[in-house]
Please model this.
Amino acid sequence: MSDSSASPLVGIVMGSDSDWPKIRAAGTALDQFDVPWEARVMSAHRTPEAVRQYATTAVERGLKVIIGAAGGAAHLAGVVAAHTTLPVVGIPVPTPDLGGLDSLLSTVQMPGDVPVVSVAVGMGGPRNAGLFAVQILALCDASLAERFKQFKEDLPARIAAKDQALAETIRRDRAS
Ligand code: RP5
Model:
């Protein structure tokens, strides 16, 4: 768990509190690497002034990366990117009506000169947003870079353990 009193390096903004259960894996990934973060609810459409204020003051408040999550007409990450020089990662939130394709397209189809990188809708998307922020921070933090390298090196062993556990489950199922 990261030190919650430390100044946040990553800002997670979301269009609605209803997004949080779908994207909290981003915060969990940051906690895994003890990266301090904050999370805020604000909307490109419902509270445009709050978004502008947040994005324009992000650098002076010490943030290094902003993660913007929204669903439907998901313009939050793009509007944040319009107002800051920080790298912005978009999380397209799954939606009941169009399955998140709406969120994906409105997050990812940015015009030139205003980059937003987008992670996947659902699946590992929110976790990857957190991990991507860790990778950005690790460029200027040798100890974080070492931890991320160790994390990558440990992945094959974790998958091998799952492979073995699955073989054991199948063996037991067949025997019963
Ligand atoms: C978007 O509208 C939010 O990001 C959320 O995904 C969606 C629905 O918001 P609520 O109606 O649940 O507040 O702006």
In short: The mean pLDDT is 96. The first strand starts at residue 10 and ends at 14. The radius of gyration is 18 Å.
